[in-house]
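Hi Y.,

Following your request, here is the sequence exactly as I used it, all 77 residues.
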Amino acid sequence: MLDPKADHDLPTAWEGSLTKAELLELFKQVHRGFYGHPSTLMRTFLGLRTWAELKHVLFGGFQRARMELLRADSRKI
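Below is the corresponding structure, written out as tokens. Let me know if you'd prefer a different format.
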């Protein structure tokens, strides 16, 4: 789309084979599988050296928790 109008919603996900809900669930599963893996969590927390790094990791965890609450019909996707 070359020049979308202000009232037109641009697509945020390509829904060729999967619905938006299926894509979102797949995205969540992939994130859970990688970032929730015990070795990844352990390596992350054992590698922390400063309070700023801890703050950064905790903020990322908070954002990750917020992502779990996203719904496919949300406008924030």
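Residues 29 and 69 are 13 Å apart (CA to CA).

Thanks again,
Q.
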